[in-house]
Amino acid sequence: MRSRGRPGKGFLREFEWQATGDPSAYLAAPDGVALLQEWGFPSVLAYMHGLAWEAGQLLTTSWGTTLETPRDMVGAMITVPLPERSGTTDDDARKLRLSLLVDDRIEVQLHAWRGRLWTRVSAQVYNDRSDIERLAEAVLRRPQP
Questions:
Q1: What pLDDT score does 5 carry?
Q2: What DSSP element (H or E) covers 129?
Q3: Which helix (H) or strand (E) holds 78?
Q4: Residue 73: inside a domain
Q5: Which of 7, 10, 66, 111 has the most C-beta neighbours closer than 10 Å?
Q6: What's the angle, vertex CA 108, arms to CA 106 and CA 112, rounded to 5?
Q7: How far apart are CA 52 and CA 110, in angstroms?
Q8: Which domain holds residue 128?
Q9: Considering its fold, how many domains does the chain have in total?
């Protein structure tokens, strides 16, 4: 059976082939760069950093956990421990992540580490404090695994 890629050009060139290229990223990039210039790239970075730090403070206060990351090590993402009752295993993390997605329409990364669950919040320009508050409340509403 011959590949549909570029026959006789080696494994990668023969099999790493996409039938239809999607130019969306290339077409959207100029408008994205223009928007960052309009808003001011340093301002965008400052907003995302501030929201990530605020998320860490708000979530640890709400969940009764401790943030061990110093502010100067936070960019636009922060990792926060969930309440101990949230679970301890990768399976607990998978179930909680799916529950948050399906029931609350919250997309957030969760993982098990050091005998508990952790979340990594990515603060973006389209997020605000209310998104973080929704996450805090949604986790607290969940029953123990």
A1: 54
A2: helix 129-141
A3: strand 77-81
A4: yes
A5: 111
A6: 130
A7: 16
A8: 24-141
A9: 1
pLDDT tens, position by position, 8-53: 677 777 666 666 778 899 999 999 999 999 999 999 999 999 999 9
Claim: this prediction has a pTM higher than 0.85: no
Residue 56, CB half-sphere, CA atoms under 13 Å: how many? Answer: 22
3-state secondary structure 4-58: CCCCCCCHHHHHCCCCCCCCHHHHHHHHHHHHHHHHCHHHHHHHHHHHHHHHHHH
Domain of 136, CATH number, reads 3.90.1150.170
Place of tokens 């050009």: 9
Sign of CA dihedral 112, 96, 56, 40: positive
